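Quick one, T. Sequence first:
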Amino acid sequence: MRFYLVRHGMPMRGGAYSDLDRPLTPAGESQLETLGHTLAWLGVGTAHIATSPAERCRSSAAILAHELQIPASHLHTLPELGIDGNPARALAAIGARAGVGWIVVTHEPIVRGICAALLGDPPRVGLRFDCGACACFDLEATTVKPPALLEWLLSPELLSKRVAAS
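Structure tokens:
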């Protein structure tokens, strides 16, 4: 089973927004549209999207759902993925809904914590996980620690090059 981990698109900085309510910038929306097109091009077929309650994550998840034709009823907001969330509890909450493919949309430091849990804690490699990045993990590739295999990591820079080339 594949597990896709996404860091939300570029959010607004400062202004009158609380951290929880910061929306995506137009560039952030474009990042997620590009990611959604790329995931569809790669044949990503998943059934559900889990997201942090933060506005920038919920908006990112909605864009991906639209691009991948995932019904809104399959979008799940999980407090465990929130700004003050806990990566272990987040994975447990998602694991409780096992049997379906997942795209998880969240932010730092939850992204880093989930990577550490999946790749071994501490991971033996450093991962740069910028806004708009996506990693694909194979949860069935190994029966020993670590519990997952990182198949690929798409950076926003790589995604923008794909768009420019097409």
